[in-house]
Amino acid sequence: MIGLRGGISFAIAIILCAALAVIGWAAERAARHTIVPEITAKANSVGRSAAALMERAQTLGIPFERLAGVTDYLEDLRAANAEFAQLSLFDAGGAETARAGDASGFEDPPMVRIPVTDRDGRRTGELLIVVDPTVVSAQVGGVLLDVAFIGIVSLLVALELVALVVGTRGLEALIAVEQRLRALARGRFVLHDTGKGTSARGLIQPIDLHMEELGDVHARARAEAERRGDEDALVWLEEVEERTGLGRIHAVESQAAVAVRPSLFLFMLAEELTRPFLPHFAQSIASSTEISPGLAASLPIVAFMAVVALGQVPFAGVSERLGRRSGFLIGALLAAAGYALSAVSPTYSLFIAARVATAIGYALVFVSAQGHVVDHSAGAARAAALAVFVRAIMVASLCGPPIGGVIADRLGAEAAFATSCGLALVALLVAAFTLPRGRPDERTGGVGWSQLKQAARAPGLMALLFGCAFPAKFLFAALCFLLVPLELQRQGYSSAAIGRFQMIYPLIMVLAVPFFAALADRFQVRHGFVVAGALVAGIGAMLVPLQPSIALIVVALVTLGYGQAMSIASQSALVADTASAMGGGRGAGVLGLFRLVERSGNAAGPASAGFLMAALGFAPATAFLGAVVVAGAVLFALSGRGKPAVQSGRASSAAASEGTSA
Amino acid sequence: MTRTTLGLIAVFALIAAACVTFGAYFSYVTLLNAHKGIIEARFGIAARRVADVAEQAASFGIALPAQQALTDILAREARIEPALLSMDLVDEHGTVLFSSAPGRAGGHAAADGGGRVVAQVRDDLGRSIGSVVVRYDPHILAAGAAALFDGLKTVSLATLGGAFVATVLIGLLLAAALRRAVRRAAEPAMWPAAAKSALASVAAAHQRAGASWSLRGRK
User: Which keywords, in A-to-Z order, does the entry hold (chain B) (predicted)?
Assistant: First the structure.
């Protein structure tokens, strides 16, 4: 059952693509009527210039048949005029003596013929220029592709923010109805607590009555079986319970997560907008300085990631002292100021300062939002709440790059930063309305450095963190935030196209993490999934030098996505196991250390990539980073960590702690 | 519930309409820029042709003000392009030395109206010694813009309306399907196949347990 929201989104995606195709057809028709005649006139003008040059050569005494370098000249003309499919020179007898390009693929294309004459006005040859009638259509096609992506991304954004538009009560009613229907469609008789106080109560009440009735009958049967001590009957009843979910209660989506989700999504979207153009923009600001292009591109990313990594621990305490709401608001304001300053920075050093300010705001918002969810949930509900939290971040990383790329292409990087500033301010306003006012907590029970030191002594933890967690983020941040954008920019791709490439990783993560998490849990091979995922990601990156092409860049991004999806949930589950085993309140230190090491990988990746790209070039740098991941996985596998895993947590709990890009 | 559904449909229909509008607008702007670029490139080629002649003469030591033959060349080039208002050779101070339009020579080129395309004239050392300035009738762009607008307007408006109506219709159909599914869900006889099968398995398990107990009871 696809549901109303999913159904309309799917239908609109199809309608949108069809509508844009119709507009593309209309644009091509308009171009044929209006622009192709102008291109033909331009071809005529270019042809007359070229013919005049040949006539001058003949005037100087060079016979037509001895004209040298004509093919190169025609190639130059074609390169300078993308609208020309072919330029050919024919002699007086009609034989082709020089040619650039090939228009044989076009059916009845417009063409111009310019005679070439000698000093006496006798016709000695003819220049033919064939116009490519599709060149303008291709430009329009590029624009429509951008619009189609914006449209589809807008749908995702709308789905995230739908609660703001139709109201949380209305959305809750809709979700309540859809949850019950979806459960029935899957043959599940679980009980739902949602929607009972909403306008949908009249619709859901009859369904709930059936479920409760079934549950009561089943409970009575079970009680009777227990009373009689009938083991066989208990097994049958448990089997049917397992299959149908009878008597179980569906986990309710945390209200805390629902409250913070729109504002967090908007805030994360603001940062994600900058991904496709930031490295190139940094290089352009630094062009007047002595800083090398590689360092110039990587330094703002490294500074941002380092501040976010190092800020996690102290800002958790700050957020508690200030209160989650105040922490979010101050962080969003700081980040908005950082974006505004980035847009108008006249110097590179000021730009770095602006990125640092943004990073401080980002870290404060992140820990405040996470703290809000954690404060208002417990047990299994906390995992579900964190899953909602992480989903908002993943969708932001899916939506941000293509939108940011289009804005940077069409309006400039400064406008894209200004948009980020606007989004951060909107996030601030939404948070001000949706987050509850909480009293500042004086206890500051966040994770301290001493707890991190204690956690580092947990058996096998450092092998996991430095063998797998650190290299995974190291490769991810280096490849997605620096190497790929810079390489694609070098190959002539627009920021919008780079943004579309940057969607590959989060898209695979959103789709594949739950699948691999469930597989790892079912087969109880989390250690194997961690190693296999790292090998897939690392080897994918190592393939790039085989033939540094766009296809292998895509392969590297896809293998990175699948590799991370395979390993990340299992990594979290192994860390969670270690945290549980530590006990005595020391588990938070383990999780804090895990996050710190991961985020250090985020900072170290672009730093190393900037240096390696300058020293070795894109392909060897990517392969080197891939080799680091493979080496880390091998070391982890050899470290003796591969003991039989204990029963894992739910896939959602593993996925819940993953997916943040910073 | 109805209000939520309608709100949802309206939001999504607006998104669809906004995207189609953006698509049409961006397509129009792209075509407009391409049209302007091609026209200006064409005039630029004509200007470059004259600038090449002036540079060649300059390389033989003939100063720009002394290149009297350029008046004829400028007039010939301007005749070929009917949309040209004038084609001038301007010195480095902005004074028109020669022009295709009678009476412009000796004037200043800076404050002229119309579209302008400029090709620099350089000496053998690459220094700018003047420029060929083409002034063209902006109506040529306006006429192209109007033709492109007309070409896109009808189809785009129809597409916009179609997309909006289709979204609303599909939304209403899905909402109706949701309501029907809710009504059916209230009646176990009308449940989906998976639910019926699950219900049967529950009933079978209960019956089996009951049968087992009555069997034991008889024993």
Answer: Membrane, Transmembrane, Transmembrane helix
